[in-house]
Design a protein that fits this description.
Order of helices and strands: EEEEEEEEEEE
Strand content: over 45%
CATH architecture: 3-layer Sandwich
Helix content: under 10%
CATH topology: Rieske Iron-sulfur Protein
CATH superfamily: Rieske [2Fe-2S] iron-sulphur domain
Bound molecules: FE2/S2 (inorganic) cluster
Radius of gyration: 13 Å
Largest sheet: 4 strands, antiparallel
Distance between the termini: 8 Å
Strand order of the largest sheet: 2-3-4-9
């Protein structure tokens, strides 16, 4: 079953190395920019729900601002304790200068 693509921002609305949050259907999603690549994950840490968009982005790794758990924003994989549960990720595409996220 294919999901629906939603326009969430313009490509230039996110600074390189930074992220924004968007709300879609009661989900808060973080959209991170890494050069010309964009990645979307749930915004809330799987450990104790701190907002990851306030964390420290180092390349493709986001460090949680609360207990410093780390996740790979490309795969959502939890990389170190106390974060043990992976993050949900969402497909992202760029069309005509806009970022779209697919919600299934
Ligand atoms: S809330 Fe993110 S590591 Fe604890």
């Amino acid at each position: 079953m294919s999901g629906e693509w939603r326009i969430v921002a313009g490509c230039d609305d996110i600074e390189d190395g930074d992220g924004i949050t968007v709300k879609i259907e009661n989900r808060e999603i973080a959209v991170f920019r890494q050069g010309q690549n964009y990645h979307a994950t749930d915004n809330y840490c799987t450990h104790a729900k701190a907002p990851l968009v306030d964390g420290y982005l180092d390349g493709a790794i986001i460090e949680c601002p609360l207990h410093q758990g780390r996740f790979d924003i490309r795969s959502g994989k939890a990389l170190c304790s106390p974060a043990t549960k992976d993050l949900e990720t969402y497909p992202v595409r760029k069309i005509d200068g806009e970022i779209q996220i697919r919600i299934d």
